[in-house]
Design a protein that fits this description.
Number of strands of chain A: 12
Mean pLDDT of chain B: 87
Radius of gyration of chain B: 20 Å
Radius of gyration of chain A: 31 Å
Oligomer: heterodimer
CATH class of chain B: Mainly Alpha
Helix content of chain B: over 70%
Number of domains of chain A: 3
Low-confidence stretches of chain B: none
Largest sheet of chain A: 5 strands, antiparallel
Strand order of the largest sheet of chain A: 1-2-4-5-3
Structural class of chain A: alpha+beta
Strand content of chain A: 5-15%
Largest sheet of chain B: 2 strands, antiparallel
Strand content of chain B: under 5%
Number of domains of chain B: 1
Order of helices and strands of chain A: HHEEHHHEHEEHEEHHEHEEHHHHHHEE
CATH architecture of chain B: Up-down Bundle
Number of strands of chain B: 2
Helix content of chain A: 40-55%
Distance between the termini of chain B: 19 Å
Mean pLDDT of chain A: 85
Low-confidence stretches of chain A: 17-25
Distance between the termini of chain A: 75 Å
Amino acid sequence: MINILYSYIKKILKPKNKDNPSADKNTPNQVTVSPNINTNIDYINRLFVNSSDIVCRRFKIPLDSPVEAFVFYIDGLTQNEIINDNLLRALMVDFPSLSSISEVDTNITSFVNDNFVSVAGVKVLTDLTQVVERVLEGETALFIDDSEKALVVSVREWEARSVSEPETEVVVRGPRDGFTETLRTNTVLIRRRIKSHRLKLESMKIGELTKTTVCIAYIDGVVNDKIVEEVRERLARIKIDGILESGYIEELIEDNPYSVFPQTNFTERPDKVAGGLLEGQVAIMVDTTPFVLLVPATFPMFFQATEDYYNRYTWSTFIRALRFVTINIALLLPALYVAVLTYHQEMIPTELLVSLATAREGVPFPLFVETITMEFTFEILREAGIRLPRPIGQAVSIVGALVIGQAAVAAGLVSNPTVIVVALTAISSFTMPNQNGALAVRFLRFPIIAAAAFLGLFGVMVALMLMLFYLVSLRSFGIPYMSPIAPASKSDLKDTIVRAPWWAMFTRPRLIGYKDPQRQKFTQKPGPPKKRGTNKR
Amino acid sequence: MAKNEKISSYQLTVLIITTILGTSVIFVPSITAKYAEQSGWISVLIAFTAGVFAIFITTILGRRFPDQTIIEYCGQIIGRWPGKALGMSYVIFYTITGATIVREFTALLNSMFLPQTPALVIAFFLILMGAAAVSKGLEVIVRANEFIIPLFLGSVFAVILLVMGEVDLKELTPVAECGLQKILLSSVVPVGWFTESTVLLVLIPYLNAPNESTRAGIKAIAAVTMIQIIIFVTTVTVLGPEITANHNYSFLNLARYIRIAEFLTRVEPLVMIAWVTGVTIKISVFYYVTVASAAQVLGMKDYRLLVIPFGLAFIILSLILWQNSVQLVIFLEQIWPIFLAFPFQILIPLILLILALLRKKRGAQSGK
């Protein structure tokens, strides 16, 4: 159904998108650096007309015959001290006193680069468009007269949020650093965890206007090369004016774009990304957002939290079982409530049935209408609570608790059992560690309630079976979505339903990290010292 | 016919388990108890031998033609046109079997849980599930089954465990009181079910290791036999042979005996839920086998065009072939096992195998 609807929408939209709308309209053709410094300045001024954040500082290198030069950067994206100390000061003060002109004459730009620019990241470029691109990223360009080259010095620094605890994925035990909006900070957080040359960070630019840097991270030798190749291809295929968040990329690279179920995992936690990389996943990091994508993602992954791996395995296993129960509650409880009370009253013990019937006595609506209205009301409250500033948020919860919780029941519009069911469903839906997956579950409970109202428990089963057939047909970057449950892999179940102790997790996930399946030595099970008395002395 | 979908031996084993148990769980206890009374478990053992025999015939025949289904290779064995006719009759057989399964389940739901819902609606939704699975391909059916089998078997065993308090083993004695003849008679129906593994005739080319198919099949039949015997023993020892025989859905009646802490009672809708999963897989398998063989008989590249016509055929046949549930029971006990299951699941494959051996026919071995 949904597929048909979407293909219809697609048909409507198609004619509009026939040709590529953002085909380099405003980007200039290739221009080389001119030996005449004035040409360069003119060119830059023409490009950046009406741009108040551009700094073009002209100065003279006071040799015997002074040489014209200028630095060009964007205010606020650079470290001004370094420009002042290591470029301007070096050239205007130190340079003339130290060098003899004869050395300088031959090629002044290379000479300056070799001897005076005391910054590590320097590139010598001849292409002016490239220079402009780099300056827009926060580097500083230095042009010297009579030279066909420009020095591009990497002195990026801008106001950025510092590394702080991620708010969407809070843990009790575990590292508290989270990704920030700066890509370089994020790669550092990964590199600090995986200090190996095998950690590769490929980067590319996506977005005709935003030129967002997107970085593909993986561990060479662990990752399935086909998946990396697939990620590269799918990213290279993206032609769009701008990427503002990794959500754009997520929707542009999915295997099944119409699906309710997310096929990429996202996280703010570097430890989660590092863990994924170690298992053979590929991370897609996008500049200007703290949310990093992990592919391929399978359905069971959405029920796993990083903390599962830090807590004791017995507890983690229990928590995973608990989560399994709560997911089923979030998905099915309202539907089962409707189905059992409408079609299968014989299942309910008599006393309970009597009290339910008493509670519902004055309610004017059918159970289905009552339940779905309450569920819908809850979704409204939730959405209102998220977007509002905190002080107003309290008002929402008061309205929710008083009006929906009490007044509606007192007025006889809804029954108490329905409120309890909806509340339990709501709380359960919050136990999912991954919001991406939780959204799918929350969305799907509405059609299942409808099926329950239509055909009772059989209807619930029809809906569930259709969902199951759909789930097992999905793939994420070629990996079956329901693996390792279906297709089953015994060795991977140790980290799916249960969480095996670390000394027992010998292998990486079979389908994702099969290239280097063994991840640790087999004989690591700890125990008391073998010989008596070895720990004396 | 593109056979780029592959299923593993483990997947095949659990697929056969669900395919057979899907309906036999509910019906076999009462049907066997009708003639053999408390000794019905012996009939199940007889059915086991038949099932193993069928597996041997099917897989030996299938392994001679590892890349082809029976529809494709029967022409090579008995000639082109007789082969086409045989293929067509297999399609008809599978269609009727599929319709039977749909009707069995529709009748059960109608009589036990949804008395006011029209049979057409139930049949439609059953076929909708089947069509969804079939149009997504064999791999999807197989994987969904992998997901389901723990739930399905788990619920069966949960019922058995929860009624353990009511078991009275004396009901099983005297053994074989009714005589060998009646036991053989009562095994006719289970034999029909246990030889349903012959869907392998169509599925063998999709296996990634056809050589393991015999072992996988026998494992499945052994598991089915064990579960079926446990179910029979529990049903008879709890309900007694007479009540077991008198109820069409004796296993569901068993669930009525469940009483947990005086609170959770009458859980048979929950049993029904688990059973829906098994039946859906069973329907999907037969649905798939039907459309796949039909596509091959008609020489079509893609079977998906046939999904909707055959779905309609299943629904209509399931509604018009039997006037009422008495006819359905008679059909299930006397007509289907003898005139349909036996020839199509044992006799014809056996004859084809003998002919293939005599005429030394052999398909192209899958070259590596």
